[in-house]
Each structure stands twice: as C-alpha cells, then as structure tokens.
Design a protein that fits this description.
Helices cover 74% and strands 4% of the residues of chain A. Chain A has eleven helices and four strands. In chain A, helix 1 crosses helix 9 and helix 2 runs antiparallel to helix 3. In chain A, the strands form two sheets. In chain A, strands 1-4 form a two-stranded antiparallel sheet. Chain A has a single domain, classed as ABC transporter involved in vitamin B12 uptake, BtuC, CATH 1.10.3470. By secondary structure, chain A is mostly helical. Chain B is mainly alpha-helical. Chain B has a domain of 208 residues. Chain B has 13 helices and four strands. In chain B, the strands form two sheets. Chain B has a two-stranded antiparallel ribbon. Chain B has a two-stranded antiparallel sheet with strand order 2-3. In chain B, strand 2 and strand 3 form a beta hairpin. In chain B, helix 2 runs parallel beside helix 6, helix 2 runs antiparallel to helix 11 and helix 7 packs across helix 9. Chain B starts with a helix and ends with a helix. The chains are: A mainly alpha, B mainly alpha.
C-alpha cells in the first residue's frame, strides 16, 4: 500500500505539471482549432530562460526566495511575449488557410525554437541547482513527500483555480468562452477575437512557462528537445480531459500523471510511453470527446 | 498545359536516369534515399492528400516493411526479393488493423491517434518485444538483393531498384487518380457526408486508402533496409512521420510534382547544407513557417481544372 500512496503523491506532482502545460494546448485548440505543436518547446524554452536568469542572479549575491519568485515572473513574461510573437508571425497569417498548413507551420515553429535553444545553450543537458528552494522531506507513515512536491502541487492548484475563475467570472473570460464556441458569432457580438487570441497565447504560454520551470526544478536535468516529450504528454492530457475544455485539461493532466506513476510503480517504466498512448487510443476510440468533453453535434 | 506537364515529367525522369552517372557514391546514396522518401511521401499523400485523413504515423508502415525485410533476411536467410511480398502484405495488415477502429475519427483526433500508434510502435521496436527487432540498435547486416544470379551490390544498382520502384509508384498513383477509387477518395475528402449520400462506401474507401498507402510505404521500407543494410527504431519514429507529413503539406497535397518538390526541399536541401550543421534545422523551421505563410496550399498546389474560384477556396 505504501507503493500506492507514494506513487499517488508522485503522480499528482507530475500530473499538475502536465495540467499546467495542457491548459495552453487546450485553450489554443478551443479557439483556433489548431494543435500548437510549438507549445511544448515554449515550455522547454521557459526552463532554459529561468535557469539563466536564476544563475545570473545567484552569481551576484546570496540565494534567496525572491530570486525564485523573480525567475518565475520574468520567464513567464518572456515566454508570453514569445508566444504572442509566434501567433502573430506563424499562425495569424494562416487563419483562413487549409488547417493542415497551420499545423505544419506549428511544426516548423517547434523545430525553430528547439534548434534555437540548441544554438544558444548547446546540446548538453543543463542542471538546475538543487538548493533552489530549501529541501525538506516529510515522512508521513512511510510516504515521502518533498517540499518541492508540495510547492509544485499548491502553486499549480492556485494557478488553476485562478484561471478557472478568470475564465468563468470575468468579462474577458466570457469572451474567451464565446470565441471558443463560435468565432463569427462572437465577432458579431462585438468581441475582438484577435484580442481574445492574444490573451489566450499570453495565458497559455505563461502557464506553460511555470510548468517548464517546475519540470526543471523537479527533474533538474533539462535538454533542448525535451519539449517534444512533455508537450506530447501534456497534449494527451488535454485530450483525455476533452480538448478545448479548460477544467478537462486540469483533470486530464492529473489523471495522466497518476496513470504514468502507477504504470512506473507497478509495471515498468520502459513501457510508460506505450501505455500512455494506448490509454489515449482507447479514450479516442471509445470516447473521442474526452472525459469532460461535451458531446457536440457536429458534421461527421 | 498538358504538354508542358508531359515535357517536365520526361525531363525529370531523364534527369533521374542520368543522375547516378554524374554523381559520386555519396550523392548517389542521397539520390536513392530521395527516391525512397518520394515513394513514401507519395503513399502518404494517398491517405493524407487524396483521402484527406490526417495520418501522422506513416513511418509505422515504412518501418513494418523495413523490419519485415530485415528480420526475414537476417534471421531466416530469405533472399531480399522473396521478402518483398511480405513487406507489402504485412504493412497492409498492420495498416488495416490500426485504421479499422479509428478511420471514423475526425481530423485532429486521427492525427493524434496516429502519433500515439507511432510512439507505441517505436517502443515495441526499441524494447525488442519478440526478441526479433534487435532493440534500440536495430538489425545489421542485411544482405544485397540478387535476381537471376545478378547481385545488386553497388550504390548505383540500388539506385536503379529505387528508380524502378519510383516509376511503379507513379504508375499506381496515376491509375488511382483516373480510377473509380481515386474519384471516390476525392469525394470523401471534399465532403464525406455528401459522398455517402451518392452511394460511396465511406468506410471502405478510407480503409482502401490506408491499405494502398501502407503497402507502398512497406515496399519503400524494404528498399530502405537494403540501402542502409541496417534498420533501427529511430529511422521510423514519430519525427520521421512528421517529415513525411510536412513533405506532403509543404509540397502540395494531391499534387505529384508538388510532393516531389516537397521531398527535395525537406530532405535534399538539408543534405546540401550539411556544412551549416547546427544552424540548419533552425533555418529549416523558419523556412517551414515561411513556406506555409507564403504558399498556404503548398509550393506546387494541385489544380482542379477550370473550377470557379469560390469552389477552390473551400479546400
């Protein structure tokens, strides 16, 4: 039973990172109906930018918790700007084009960011410092929880709750939901859809940036093409929850994290990817709209 | 217009004929791989461009073909040419098995499922499931093909095989284009509901497209195994599928010259700029975005005859 609870904690930690990244995919897909393949690479870029900012500051003076906070805010801002620029340059011109053209454009953007990271920071693995936040472990009757895991879980939950309220209680949030349902109708109601899309890219990219920093702090090793793996997993999470559905991405992320951790704990970690995708295939075959997705009548 | 296309095709095929005599063995190898990739891209186009199904896992079928040849040849000592029927039929079976439960899925869902299958496929190969696939390093030492006592053991002779396969593929695609099945695929792509209303068996033709696409990719895979005399999982991973997918979209779906041009741009150009080593894929990514922004329907899009403009816009 200890294994179970240990993997439960691990799974929730991984799951909350997936959930943060998945939100970026699901919001973009909801409004643009585009799989933003570059999102995973933005996440990786965030980890690199954050690490650089942190090491620059620590080089100047003694480490403090404010540096970590600054690292989060600065990298989230930078990644948000990159995300908006990407939308402007690579996706907006293709909004009226065949859908696959935008997908290939996204793949190109992903390749560009990935290799851009490699050109700037090199192809070797970079290591996050271990003492970025005070390292404490709590032992709750055999289940080990680290302070890092607690921080990741709490912060993710706070961010997700914040996003949920933003989407459901504010005017801009309503505009985002309206644009996701029908862009043309939203435009007729006086919603500036372009601004909504920019907002989405700001929100998605900065949440993804936080996810990327968590990945860096939790796993510590970051490499230039890690965006593919985490990005795809997060995308799977978005689909499991029902793509385009914001609470769905959160639930899907947590479920996928738990599933991964249980497979790693009970079966074998060499097969965890295969199991992830078998789960995905099973879900798509039997319930293509995801767990929380609503069945919408659509032209088949 | 028809004549110009014919002249261009003739010139291109003459160029392919004389190419191995002008090139050294390195470029002849690049030329062979170009032909193999062009065949795979054309087979991907049957599913993606002609039937309009977002298949981002075509490397699976390419890989099944390559591994069939490699395993039958190295483990059971069967001559290469005798493995080719298996390298066609097995990918078709795999293709139908994969496609049957998912062909009804809409665009992006199909795309993601195919990515999923491709990742599972890669893990199956890398984890050496039945002790046959050789694990992460793959299989080495595939022998040269021989026919009636003639051994195809130089690069130019393998080029010749690839060239023959390429011509056969063009023939198959031309026939498909002008056949009942090709028109059915076109209808399905344009509007599957309307297609079903005029009596086209939607599901059957979707599977048909997957079957043909997988079979052709399988032969190409078999030749790929011969060309490198080795196969390994990363030659058939999901990034490879992304490459084939992008070739079709960048070149121009359903357009044969477009796809050949796409293969050239996406595979040969990076080979030419190999000196730039690290920066080339960065530039390549930017080029992909630019190509799509400037030519959203592909570099050499397919022209549907004299259709009014508003009909074309629909695609």
């Amino acid at each position: 039973m200890d294994v179970f609870f240990q993997q439960l904690v691990n799974g929730l930690t991984i799951g909350s990172m997936y959930a943060l990244i998945a939100l970026g995919y699901t919001m973009v897909y909801g409004v643009l109906k585009l799989i933003n393949f570059a999102h995973g690479d933005l996440v990786a870029l965030a980890a690199y930018v954050g690490l650089t900012i942190y090491t620059q500051m620590v080089g100047a003076s003694a480490p403090s918790i404010w540096f970590v906070l600054f690292m989060f805010i600065a990298s989230a801002l930078i990644i948000a700007i990159v995300g908006v620029l990407l939308e402007r340059a690579a996706y907006r011109p293709l909004r009226k084009a065949p859908r696959l053209s935008a997908v290939v454009s996204a793949l190109g953007a992903s390749m560009m960011i990935q290799n851009g990271i490699m050109l700037i920071w090199g192809a070797q693995i970079k290591i996050f410092p271990a003492d970025i936040i005070p390292n404490k472990t709590f032992n709750v009757s055999g289940v080990v929880v680290t302070s890092m895991q607690l921080i990741i879980l709490c912060l993710s939950l706070v961010l997700m709750a914040g996003l949920y309220f933003y989407i459901h209680k504010t005017k801009t949030g309503t505009a985002i939901r309206a644009s996701a349902i029908d862009q043309d109708a939203a435009r007729l109601m006086g919603i500036n859809v372009n601004r909504v899309i920019v907002t989405i890219f700001v929100l998605g990219s900065s949440l993804g940036a936080v996810g990327g920093l968590f990945i860096g702090m939790f796993y510590r090793g970051i490499y230039f093409n890690m965006g593919w793996i985490y990005g795809l997993n997060a995308f799977v999470a978005a689909i499991i929850g029902g793509i385009g559905n914001i609470p769905g991405a959160m639930v899907g992320g947590m479920l996928l994290g738990l599933f991964n951790a249980m497979i790693a704990g009970y079966v074998s970690s060499a097969w965890s990817d295969a199991f992830t995708y078998l789960l995905l295939i099973a879900i798509l075959v039997f319930r293509p709209t995801g767990i929380l997705g609503e069945r919408v009548a659509e032209k088949v | 217009m028809k004549n110009r296309a014919l002249i261009l095709y003739t010139l291109f095929i003459i160029f392919l004929c004389v190419f191995p005599f002008m090139a050294d063995s390195k470029w002849s190898a690049v030329g062979t791989t170009f032909l193999i990739y062009a065949v795979v891209a054309l087979s991907q186009d049957i599913v993606l461009g002609r039937a309009g199904m977002f298949d981002m896992g075509h490397a699976i079928f390419f890989g099944v073909g390559a591994y069939s040849t490699a395993i039958l040849n190295t483990a059971y000592g069967i001559p290469i040419f005798w493995t080719i029927p298996v390298a066609i039929i097995l990918p078709i079976i795999v293709g139908l098995a994969i496609a049957t439960p998912i062909v009804h899925l809409r665009g992006d869902y199909l795309l993601v499922t195919m990515i999923g299958f491709n990742i599972v496929f890669e893990q199956v190969l890398a984890n050496n499931v039945f002790g046959l696939t050789g694990g992460p390093n793959g299989i080495f030492g595939i022998s040269f093909p021989s026919l009636f006592g003639w051994r195809f053991d130089s690069q130019n002779e393998i080029y010749l095989l690839a060239f023959v396969l390429f011509l056969l593929t063009l023939l198959v695609i031309r026939n498909l284009e002008t056949s009942r099945a090709g028109r059915a695929l076109h209808y399905i792509k344009a509007d599957s509901l309307a297609a079903e209303c005029v009596g086209i068996n939607d599901r059957f033709y979707r599977l048909y497209a997957f079957g043909i696409g997988a079979g052709i990719a399988g032969v190409a895979g078999s030749l790929f195994a011969v060309q490198y005399s080795a196969v390994s999982p990363e030659a058939f991973n999901f990034l490879q599928s992304v490459l084939f997918f992008s070739i079709v979209i960048v070149g121009g779906p359903s357009s044969i010259p477009g796809i050949l041009l796409g293969t050239f741009v996406m595979f040969v150009l990076p080979e030419i700029f190999r000196e730039l080593a690290t920066a080339r894929y960065f530039v390549f990514g930017i080029a992909m975005i630019l190509a799509m922004v400037l030519r959203p329907r592909g570099i050499w899009p397919y022209n549907f005859g004299k259709m009014p403009k508003f009909v074309k816009e629909e695609h």
